[in-house]
Write a structure and sequence with these properties.
The protein is mainly alpha-helical. About 70% of the residues lie in helices and about 5% in strands. Helix 1 runs antiparallel to helix 8 (about 195-220).
């Protein structure tokens, strides 16, 4: 069976790949959106923290025998804690300065972390086994859907939508948003704003680490995996609107699908289509599709 002259298996296969990539784009851009939207920090270390998540899971399995499910819980906490340490010791000093200082600091940290891991582990990918429960595939009738990839899509959707709900629809989210607008007023109500800021940054970093653990069985574990994806993720955030939670989610999944379709109909543009879309969006709506002009 063909659709627009393309074999249906090839078309649906690329759509699946696009949806999987979109799951990681959504998770990573969500973490960036949380950090920028609530803390006003452009976190260029995000790609390195995604890579850290994959490496912590890999080393936990190979050195300590900690399985995938435990890593999925423990790794975001551990990497998120390192993020909180960075926020308390370094980023805290830059809040009153221009965004450029935070960007340069986090960019430098990303290069240091990547360089250290490349020196220690080299540049070749290391395999991480798919959990036993997710081995095999579902026969959907028109294609085989690997169980693990289906899990990645579902888990990403659940985490993204839960995060959106907490920030946009709960009292905690209201406190977070109020703390960014008027921290002195929120502190007057007895809320520890600096601690809230630190925990929020740690949560955003934890999302990157969570994505890294889920990516390990698909993309393998290597020191450059964060650098390979972070530029695309920044483009996703810009298109969705800097700081927009729902914008990050919808744009991440949507651009993953567009990228997959481009690989079918015009493969030569598949690596640049997201940046072409970013350019068009910025020309028409500089604040992004879901962003607001300040």
């Amino acid at each position: 069976m063909e659709i627009f002259g393309i074999p249906s298996q090839a078309l649906f296969g690329q759509l699946l790949i696009g949806l999987i990539n979109g799951s990681f784009y959504a998770l990573l851009s969500l973490g960036l959106a949380v950090i920028f939207g609530l803390l006003n920090i452009i976190n260029f270390t995000h790609g390195a923290q995604y890579m850290l998540g994959a490496f912590v899971a890999y080393l936990s399995l190979t050195k300590l025998g900690i399985n995938y499910w435990a890593s999925l819980i423990l790794t975001p906490i551990l990497v998120g804690a390192t993020g909180m340490l960075i926020e308390r010791t370094m980023l805290k000093q830059l809040y009153k300065l221009d965004h450029l200082y935070g960007l340069l600091l986090t960019f430098g940290l990303a290069l240091i972390i990547q360089g250290l891991f490349r020196h220690e582990f080299g540049s070749s990918g290391m395999p991480y086994p798919v959990p036993e429960v997710f081995k095999g595939a579902y026969n959907t009738g028109f294609m085989f859907l690997p169980k693990y990839r289906a899990w990645v899509i579902v888990a990403s959707l659940v985490v993204c939508l839960t995060t959106w709900y907490v920030i946009e629809r709960t009292k905690l989210g209201a406190y977070l948003r109020a703390a960014t607008e008027n921290p002195s007023l929120v502190q007057a109500f007895g809320i520890n704003v600096p601690r809230m800021i630190t925990l929020t940054y740690g949560f955003g970093v934890g999302l990157a680490a969570f994505a890294g653990v889920m990516a390990a069985p698909i993309y393998q574990v290597n020191p450059t995996m964060g650098a390979d994806i972070i530029i695309v993720v920044f483009a996703v955030v810009v298109i969705g609107g800097m700081g927009s939670i729902m914008g990050a989610i919808l744009t991440g999944f949507g651009l993953g699908l567009i990228e997959g379709l481009t690989k079918v109909f015009y493969p030569e543009a598949s690596s640049t289509v997201i940046f072409i879309i970013m350019t068009i969006v910025l020309l028409i709506k500089p604040a992004g599709l879901f962003g607001t002009q300040k």
